[in-house]
């Protein structure tokens, strides 16, 4: 790669990192190119697609952030405290970095590295849930699909409230956690989501098939 192309690629990575963090992974590519001071065509010539740019810019950072939260949760001596920490920290990431919710929901299936991060996140969540349930602290009917469904709703509300009440999502998460304790459990009025139903719902939310 020529020196000028390397410089342009670096400027595009920096601009993409900023805009993805501000607006999520659907940030306009033309705006990324404009902020980097290059043409839209240059972006496509260097990266080829939105998904390739996402993999280049977001995958490693998302893996680090989500991995750290999971490690902290699994290292907690008390399984419920670890579970609550995981939920709270994921909620915080969603509220402060819109790209994280796009990662967790698997919004861009053609971004292969990002999907690997998403899959690892779901596996870690399953381990954290099972650990809290084995300890008798988390209601036994709670599933990984329930978690993603609830977190997706939290992300939408946190984004809508960010300029008016930026911390109000914490109140919703606290109510949710209280309702997930084993002693608070009551029979549920609907069956749990299947993975297929969950992915269909996520597609409706994000506009991806």
Automatic annotation (TrEMBL):
Q: What PROSITE patterns is this protein classified in?
A: HTH_TETR_2 (PS50977)
DNA-binding region spans which residues? 28-47
Limits of the HTH tetR-type domain: 6-65
**Gene3D superfamilies cross-referenced by the UniProt entry:** Tetracycline Repressor, domain 2
Where on the tree of life does the source sit, at the highest rank?
Answer: Bacteria
Read off the InterPro entries from this record. Answer: Homeodomain-like_sf (IPR009057), HTH-type_TetR-like_transc_reg (IPR050109), HTH_TetR (IPR001647), Tet_transcr_reg_TetR-rel_C_sf (IPR036271), TetR_SbtR-like_C (IPR049445)
- One annotated GO molecular function: transcription cis-regulatory region binding
Ordered alphabetically, the record's keywords are: DNA-binding, Transcription, Transcription regulation
PANTHER family per UniProt: HTH-TYPE TRANSCRIPTIONAL REGULATOR BETI, HTH-TYPE TRANSCRIPTIONAL REGULATOR RUTR
| Protein name stated in the entry | TetR family transcriptional regulator
Q: Which organism is it from?
A: Streptomyces marincola
What lineage does UniProt assign to this protein's organism?
Bacteria, Bacillati, Actinomycetota, Actinomycetes, Kitasatosporales
